[in-house]
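job 3f2a | input accepted
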Amino acid sequence: MAYKKYIGLAGMVVAGFLVAAVAVPASAHMEGERGHEHTDTTAQSAREAAKARVQGKLDETKRKVCANRTDAIKKIMSRAAEAGQKHLTLFSAVQARVEEFYAKKKLNVANYEALKTTAIAKRDATVSALQAVSDSTVLDCSADNPVGAADAFKAKVKAMHDALKEYRSSVNALLVAVKTAAKATEGGQ
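job 3f2a | predicted structure (189 res):
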């Protein structure tokens, strides 16, 4: 690790001239810099200013990229809301048919009202989650944090998917209970 103790160049040929540098111990180099604290702070502030300029350019570039992708992002957002609405419509139709079948066949299920109430509550939760997704289909690239808005949208979509899963499982539980009662009625006759 002796190579870390010395700073300098052994020798170099530049445009036909031999340039030689003397190896200087790192401690001697550091001692020479102590007197130049003012120069270091000036250099450091210049580096920070350069970083700020580069960051500003990056932010501008990111905004341009965001603006170019805005249409595609809005389509993705609206498709997520439409897909959720299609699932909600399907599950609601299944629930309505199960309730109609239950009433038509005059079946007797012990916990039918509890299952029906649970399904209705899950449907209401799904409707509110779907409404939150539908309301957030606007993306503004000039806002302070468009990435945060996108992350919030992803979280809302995940909540909508979870609500749809819970609603589906509650409708399925209702369907299974009614189907079991119908088979018991048919088998008893």
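job 3f2a | The chain has four helices and four strands.
job 3f2a | closed
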